[in-house]
Design brief:
Layout (H helix, E strand, L loop, with lengths): L3 E10 L4 E6 L11 E7 L13 E5 L9 E6 L6 H7 L6 E9 L8 E8 L3 H13 L4 E9 L19 E6 L2 H11 L6 E5 L2 H13 L7 E3 L3 H4 L4 H5 L1
Parallel strand pairs: 7-8, 7-10, 8-9, 10-11
Antiparallel strand pairs: 1-2, 1-6, 2-5, 3-4, 3-6
Protein name: Dihydropteridine reductase
InterPro entries: FNR_nucleotide-bd, Riboflavin_synthase-like_b-brl
Length: about 240
């Protein structure tokens, strides 16, 4: 396993609780839209066994042509050891990346794509939207729906409806409004539905989409194949 050590070159406050850490791109490090990586703090591999409390699975919120690796995360006042350390790291601090992969690249199948996310899960979709803006080939249109009860919505400069780009963006702050819109969007029986959020959020969305006629192969999750059966067992069985 190759470990890429790199430095933080910028820290952006996206909202009072959400930060984006922009990292220098190590030589040989590559990724595509929808990628995730293991993000580790200094000392995680200092002992005989890795210190898992210093490692998190994170989405990369930037594209390669932005020349920085973006890691966007929510850090609350009461937080884990990992988040507490991360909160106090300054520009120039060292971090590590490894096991980078993508489960949610744009599926260019001449269909409508629906991006359903909760809170900072929107970070996973940011590079997909930018990739679509740069190259809309074989994608009919994209509709993003994000729920964040904090009302501190992120990336609003990118997630802004643009008719000429065939892109629609919606932000809601209540579960009732969110799930009502999901039901309405599911009227598109041929669409592709990307879902990013907590496991509970995934389960609830999948149940609602299936209830309204959406099939497993139309639902895209940011999960490794070995974990997919926990969420979409019907698809695995086919």
């Amino acid at each position: 396993m190759q470990i890429y050590w790199t430095k933080i070159n910028q820290i952006i406050d996206e909202s009072p609780e959400v930060k984006t850490y922009l990292l220098d791109c190590p030589e040989g490090f590559t990724w595509e839209e929808g990628a995730h990586t293991y993000f580790a703090l200094e000392g995680f591999n200092a002992g005989e066994k890795p210190n898992r409390s210093l490692v998190r699975h994170m989405s990369i919120s930037t594209l390669p042509d932005e020349k920085s690796i973006g890691i966007t995360t929510r850090i609350k006042e009461q937080c884990s050891e990992f988040k507490s350390i991360l909160k106090n790291i300054n520009v120039g601090g060292k971090v590590a990346l490894f096991k980078t992969n993508s489960n949610v690249p744009l599926r260019r199948e001449n269909k409508n794509i629906y991006l359903l996310s909760s809170g900072v899960g929107l970070a996973t979709f940011r590079p997909l939207v930018l990739e679509y803006f740069a190259r809309p080939d074989n994608v009919n249109q994209i509709h993003s729906l994000n729920i964040d009860s904090s009302k501190e919505f992120i990336f609003t400069n990118i997630f802004e409806s643009a008719t000429e780009k065939k892109f629609t963006s919606e932000f809601v702050d209540s579960r009732e409004a969110y799930y009502q819109r999901v039901q309405e969007l599911a009227a598109d029986q041929d669409g592709l539905y990307y879902v990013v959020g907590s496991d509970e959020f995934l389960v609830q969305n999948i149940a609602l989409l299936k209830e309204h006629g959406i099939k497993s192969n139309q639902i895209v999750l940011d999960k490794h194949a070995r974990f997919m059966e926990n969420f979409l067992p019907a698809e695995v069985a086919q």
